[in-house]
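Q: Ionotropic receptor, please. Structure only.
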Amino acid sequence: MAWFIIILLWLGNSRAQFVDITSQTEPDLEERLFGLLLRLKTEKIYDTLLIYGRDCAFPSLASRLQVPTVLVSSGSTNFEWNFSSLTLILSCDIQAEREENYRTLMKLHLARRLILLRGDFQPESVCDFYSKKDQYNIAMVKENFDQFGVVYSCRLFQDQNYEKINFSEGKPIFIEQFRNMHGAPIRTFPVVKPPQCMFYRDATTGEERYIGFVANLLNNFVTKVNATLSMQMELAKNGAEPSFVNVTNWAAEDLLDIGMSEALSSRMSNFDTISYPYLMSSYCFMIPVPDKMPFSEIYMAIVSPPVLIVLFIIFCIISVMLIYIQKKSWRALSVTSVLMNDICLRGFLAQPFPFPRHSSRKLKLIFMILGFSSVITTTMYLAYLQTFLWAPPVDPPMTSLADLRKSRYKMAISIYDADVVNSLNVSKEQVVVLGLTKLRHLRGTFNDNYIYPVTGLRWITFNMQQNIFAYPLFYYSETICVNYFDILSFPLRRHLPYRDLFEEHMLRQKEFGLTKLWLDRSFWVMLRLNHSTREDLSPPLRDDYIEVDNLYWVLCLYFAGLGLGCTCFILELITPLTRWGRFRVLQ
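A: Structure for Ionotropic receptor:
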């Protein structure tokens, strides 16, 4: 019995010591984890804690860190959380995070994660588990962290997929792994579309290369992160057209990492599979320069009806005043005498006319007014005529779709713009739908029977090409557009782990002026790679002399007046002069 009592006392004492050790171990683990979280905050600040799971040391540390904390004990949220990029995720177990909300997952994709391992999980299996979800900022500690102070951090570009870090050492726990990808491939597909992306073969190495303000950006990024480009040309072997639409779809299907082309952003409901805007422009029409007025229409253009009406009124007033002053009576006034006043007709045409010898001052004043009017009239019309003959005026430019409907031009568009153009209420007879390749070829010939949709960035090269021409053929309309606000972005894989590095590189290249340099050199690069030509595509200028056909209306008016005069003369010969006496000019 005594031995039994001694054994019971020994077991009770051992149990008390075990409970005391356990109660001391848990606070020690919390203290070490608290120190680890403080260290992570010094490496890179975090403004939010997101804790998945329960029954671990993480929830109790939230109040001590004085950081906004979200506890998700069930492992998933039912609605979208607007987390920032500085969120730190703490998981009580590898299975604790079971987030199902798609938008929340996208916002937390690049966030740092610290996992408390329980049981027999190995670091390499944990890193493999998260790498399959394209999540690489992973660190983990085991339950004996308070004893050994070992942190396991996942590493991608090395033989062992994790690194064992002693807490007492000064090594960083989370690193930017994708700043040096050690030659890892970046899957892409080029869409040859000058001047964005153009193919050439290196004369020294014989390698296939791509150049352009889109291709250059991706090439520089690959060099910066020490990666390699892997061209996925097999995607186009199934008959798919290598267009920016297909490249955007391939990136959305995770077949590409970054597309070497612009993305189809106009039909996107979200920007998960496209990058931050690289360049912003407009998508409008290049329209032929308005035609010059033909010489045959110039003679009618300088005759303005309101001016003719004013001159006719002045002619009638002067004619009435001349008749009244000469005859001293209103009885001599008649319609024929006023309209067919020989002196006024000659005076207004700047022709000599008989000047009465014994004229009064009033009559002399009327003759001075008549002479002044003739000088002003003939000088004005002569100046108009010479100016228009030297530089004929052009038709007004098109400013709306109503002007397009009245014009002789047709609208050449691609099959991808057909739906948008149909919404503009343009007549189908004026729209010609072509394939993308045919449209680019026709647009490159500067055929001035059509108007073409073109981005503001592409117009830069067209405008520079027109400097070689004898005269410009097209102008860029900013009022007739398919899209007034066109965004050029890159197609990206949905869960691209280095999206932030690529977008940062993109903005820096633009900030340093490299993008502008590439745009300014685009046309000369196109010339060097035979994507453009130095040939003057402008038609030869018309001759500056006037042909007989241009005098059509002048000759018509001349012969009409001559015929009228001959008719009056013949009637005077065959008719008694007394019946035509009223048509005699007043002396």
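A: Brief note, in case it's useful. Residues 295-393+577-583 form one domain.
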